[in-house]
Amino acid sequence: MPIPNSRRRATARVITDNVSLGGGVTLPQGDYAAVVEMMHIAMQGRVHDQTARVTINLTAEFLTELGLPPKGELISIDMDVLQYVISGDIIEV
């Protein structure tokens, strides 16, 4: 029987001056609410936990403050920042 994945709320901290997410979006240094998704994999009779995704929700208001006003009726964007956690630019606190 497969083990279901899990989610939990966390805080992601940008520890460098800023992190470029591409498309002109940069996250300044600071703390951001995040959701961490974990995969639970059964191997060799034991359960191994692996981070699958770390998502930060960027609201339309936040994007406007960054000088990137959203178009249309955009409310927010979920950005997967796992690659920046792996590189050490963002840490979980």
DSSP strand tally: 5
Structural class: mainly beta
Please give the alpha-carbon distance between the first and last residues: 33 Å
**In percent, how much strand structure appears in the residues?**
over 45%
Taking the sheet with the most strands, its summary is: 5 strands, antiparallel
Spans with pLDDT under 50 lasting ≥5 residues?
none
Describe this structure in words.
The chain has 93 residues and is mainly beta. The chain is built from 2 helices and 5 strands. Strands 4-3-2-1-5 form a 5-stranded antiparallel sheet. The mean pLDDT is 89.
List the helices and strands and how they pair.
Blueprint: E1 6-22, E2 25-43, E3 46-59, H1 60-65, E4 76-80, H2 82-87, E5 90-92
Antiparallel strand pairs: 1-2, 1-5, 2-3, 3-4
